[in-house]
């Protein structure tokens, strides 16, 4: 996990000419949820600002440690790969990557010990061509054509999420083991369960001339699918036993008539 | 593209007990950027609201067409698969999926023509256990342990993005349609099923002082997992009816004693 933290520290989220301080705060929170803390602010319109702090929702450390620069060239100092987020295809003839392709490229550089920047433009105007020209490739989040503009912090969230997924990669957590997990029912227990179920159906006079085989096959299919554990089996055995008890009393009653 | 729109219309984003109207607006925008328009609001604290409209940033159609319901059961009516977003592992032991696994499962159901719900809880408290019990599995966005809470609309954005990527990925999902397939039970049918089951357990005197709530939650979990179709529901209703009939005769008998 400290390896992940180390790796994560090589990535910077660079926000350029951000208009709304609230978006800076939301972006900090979005980064922080995915384990990233390196934020660079290039010529933000208003910062620091109460709205930024409010929307950071506890990710204050990200804001406090944010690097502030007047221009993008300074903001990218120390990074060897800069990927610019862009909603639209531009006149700039930069290679266009999907988020996943961009993240793979970023991660490869980070694995070599390089510092990487993801660059996000102004909310309304995006990245200027001159800013994109400072980037090595651009990443387009595949939004729909008729409503293509993600909120800035949403774009940050998508990229931070994709980056974390890629970093977790194959060290993906194995199936979560529940401490309270009940053992799954084995085949022999399932057979006893089906026998009890079949007997119960007989006792409550469910079949009424229908083929018990078809019904039992359908019930088997259903309960096999559910992959029950032992506690669930005990519960159902208990229910069957009560239904049988009622049937037995009822049968006594019918017998009297 | 119209195929994608058609497919997208089978997915609903269900927001439960949302506190901040601004988050509803941001969620609408997030959905809309990825081509989704089906929003369901369950007991929102304030809606409609100016802040929701402001933050929708042009996705007003999503808000205008949002379905409003007082409870989650109604909110899920018509859907056959409900996946609940949950930040934490809970005492509820529902299957836990990654966003990508959840999206794959959702898309498979949608390709069969089914309606699917992604369910998002209250900003502060998330989904209650009873709400999660209405879901077939839960999805955990893999945030870091020490800062795990995504803003609501950010979680919506991540899921909408993953869903769109998956939809773009397998443009032509070969829907494994079985000729003999029965329609899957929808949420309202499942509720009637659970009511009948609960009544039957009462009638056969199953509880004997034990808490019916715990038992019913366990049974819900079991049967939700099985994702039953309508024919299976009819079969189980028939079994319950016969058990009730026996109990009723038996009760007549006991009354005589």
From TrEMBL, chains A, B:
Predominant place of localization: cytoplasm
Any Pfam family hit: SpoU_methylase
Domain of life: Bacteria
Keyword Transferase: yes
Gene Ontology CC annotations of this record: cytosol
Every tRNA/rRNA methyltransferase SpoU type domain range: 11-161
GO biological process, one term: tRNA nucleoside ribose methylation
Enzyme Commission code: 2.1.1.200
Swiss-Prot/TrEMBL catalytic activity: cytidine(32) in tRNA + S-adenosyl-L-methionine = 2'-O-methylcytidine(32) in tRNA + S-adenosyl-L-homocysteine + H(+); uridine(32) in tRNA + S-adenosyl-L-methionine = 2'-O-methyluridine(32) in tRNA + S-adenosyl-L-homocysteine + H(+)
Alphabetical keyword list: Cytoplasm, Methyltransferase, S-adenosyl-L-methionine, Transferase, tRNA processing
Record-linked SUPFAM superfamilies: alpha/beta knot
NCBIfam families from the UniProt entry: rRNA_methyl_1
Cited function: Catalyzes the formation of 2'O-methylated cytidine (Cm32) or 2'O-methylated uridine (Um32) at position 32 in tRNA.
Official protein name in the record: tRNA (cytidine/uridine-2'-O-)-methyltransferase TrmJ
Organism placement in taxonomy: Bacteria, Pseudomonadati, Pseudomonadota, Gammaproteobacteria, Lysobacterales
């Amino acid at each position: 996990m400290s390896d992940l933290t180390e790796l994560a520290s090589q990535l910077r989220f660079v926000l350029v000419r951000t208009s709304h301080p609230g978006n800076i705060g939301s972006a900090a929170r979005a980064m922080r949820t995915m384990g990233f803390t390196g934020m660079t602010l290039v010529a933000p319109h208003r910062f620091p600002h109460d709205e930024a702090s409010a929307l950071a929702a506890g990710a204050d450390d990200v804001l406090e440690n944010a690097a502030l620069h007047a221009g993008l060239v300074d903001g990218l100092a120390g990074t060897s790969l800069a990927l610019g987020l862009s909603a639209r295809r531009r006149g700039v003839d930069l290679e266009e990557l999907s988020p996943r392709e961009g993240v793979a490229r970023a991660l490869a550089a980070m694995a070599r010990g390089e510092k990487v920047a993801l660059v996000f433009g102004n909310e309304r105007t995006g990245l200027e061509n001159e800013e994109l020209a400072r980037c090595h490739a651009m990443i387009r989040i595949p939004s729909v054509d008729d409503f293509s503009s993600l909120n800035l912090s949403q774009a940050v969230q998508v990229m931070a999420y994709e980056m974390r997924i890629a970093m977790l990669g194959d060290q993906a957590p194995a199936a979560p083991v529940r401490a309270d997990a009940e053992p799954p029912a084995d085949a022999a227990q399932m057979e006893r369960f089906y026998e009890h179920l079949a007997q119960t159906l007989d006792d409550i006079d469910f079949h009424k001339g229908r083929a018990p085989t078809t019904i039992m096959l359908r019930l088997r299919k259903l309960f096999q699918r559910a992959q029950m554990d032992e506690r669930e089996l005990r519960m159902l055995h208990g229910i069957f036993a009560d239904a049988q008890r009622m049937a037995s009393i009822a049968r006594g009653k019918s017998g009297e008539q």
